[in-house]
Amino acid sequence: MAGNRTFTMIKPDAFEAGNSGAILKMIEEAGFKIVAMKATRLTPELAGKFYEVHKERPFYADLCAYMSSGPIIAAILEKDNAVEDFRTLIGATNPANAAEGTIRKIFAKSIEANAVHGSDSDENAAIEGNFYFSQTERVI
Ligand code: CMP
Question: How many other C-beta atoms lie within 10 A of the C-beta of residue 112?
């Protein structure tokens, strides 16, 4: 059975542009509940750790520099079928391929500065949520 939690980051481009509120509104209107949330900033080392699975990819160094270039919002979200439904809400990684009305179609600037992150599996949702939040930081 699909899990009911996913993890998201509002990335530096969207935070800097002042789109965090509009993005969170879309997330809540799509039926996701916020279980934990904070504004924070990654160091290049922490960004490297978060995206370690991509370390052999040609875009890894740029991605770590970009993700540590400014504040972000990290959040754990709850909804039935959370991982899949959230990926539908945000749209394709490359905004050029994202469906109309999706968060990335509306807010992303490029394949790298693509406004939001969404976990790609229940397992990674748990790992990524635990990366940012201890049990005492969670509302639920
Ligand atoms: P995200 O869903 O957070 O997962 C990995 C991130 O790497 C992705 O969003 C983009 O920000 C970035 N990314 C993925 N593919 C590319 C690419 N081809 N070029 C640059 N950045 C990429």
Answer: 16
Residue 91 corresponds to which tokens in the numbers above?
């749209």
76 close to 35: Cβ distance less than 8 angstroms: yes
124 lines ligand 1 (CB under 6 A): no
CA 50 to chain CA centroid, Å, is 11
Residue indicated by tokens 């370690």: 52
Q: Which two tokens stand for residue 18?
A: 């002042």
Whether the Cβ atoms of residue 23 and residue 131 lie closer than 8 Å to each other: no
Q: Give per-residue pLDDT as tens, 102-138.
A: 999 999 999 999 999 999 999 999 999 999 998 777 7
**117 pairs with which residues across the strands?**
9
Q: How confident is the model at residue 1 (pLDDT cuts 50, 70, 90)?
A: low
Q: Is the CB of 111 under 6 A from ligand 1?
A: yes
Query: Residue 99 and residue 95: Cα distance in Å, rounded?
Result: 8
Domains of the chain and CATH, by start: 5-132 (3.30.70.141)
CB distance 140 to 35 below 8 Å? yes
